[in-house]
Design a protein that fits this description.
The protein is an alpha/beta fold. The protein contains 5 helices and 6 strands; from the N terminus they run ββααββαβαβα. Strands 1-6-5-2-4-3 form a 6-stranded mixed β-sheet, with helices on both faces. The longest helix has 19 residues. The protein is globular. The model has no long low-confidence stretch (mean pLDDT 98). It binds ligand AR6.
């Protein structure tokens, strides 16, 4: 699997699947979740999410991408940062692993991730980049290309540093 880092808006990514940093209710929200719901089409994506029965922290579930360039959206729920002593790193690693498993289930070969948990959920960006890159490097999957989408230049630098 090739791991790339890039700067940009994940809703514009023409990959098989994009990952959403969602909440346990899969009810939509702000940040990347809001952008994905707007890009896919609020009503259709809301209906599709409502059939999934929510999603636990560290797990992932797929819906179609509807109006997005991506064929699938893989919704995952990252941990809320509470200082690092509450299993946050393991839960975040689980998000990356489960997204690859769900990508394999739907047959996605290219996948783009946002920086899960690093917005409203408060996970420190350098530590989140450590987990993302280390977990992806270890994973066994049929996914051929993973793109780590940074929404700001500082996050892109964190990824590039770890991919060296
Ligand atoms: N493309 C790529 N990355 C983005 C985009 C975008 N269009 N928009 C924001 N980011 P956040 P979380 C980055 O807060 O911390 C939602 O309300 C952003 O810069 O979206 O996992 C959910 O419903 C940050 O680095 O997700 C949950 O309630 C990263 O995406 C909660 O927020 C994640 O920030 C999840 O919080």
């Amino acid at each position: 699997m090739r791991i790339e880092a890039a700067l940009g808006d994940i809703t514009l990514e023409a990959v098989d699947a994009i990952v959403n940093a969602a909440n346990p209710a899969l009810a939509g929200g702000g940040g990347v979740d809001g952008a994905i719901h707007r890009g896919a089409g609020e009503a259709e994506l809301h209906r599709a999410c409502a059939t999934l029965g929510g999603c636990q922290t560290g797990d992932a579930k797929a819906t179609p991408g509807f109006d997005l360039p991506a064929r699938w959206i893989i919704h995952t729920v990252g941990p809320i940062w509470r200082g690092g002593g509450f299993g946050e790193a393991e839960l975040l690693a689980s998000c990356y692993r489960r997204c690859l498993e769900v990508a394999d289930e739907v047959g996605a070969r290219s996948l783009a991730f946002p920086a899960i948990s690093t917005g409203v959920y408060g996970y420190p960006r350098p530590r989140a980049a450590d987990v993302a890159v280390a977990t992806l490097k270890e994973a066994e999957t049929n996914v051929e290309v993973v793109r780590l989408l940074a929404f700001d230049a500082a996050t892109l630098d964190l990824y590039l540093d770890r991919l060296d």
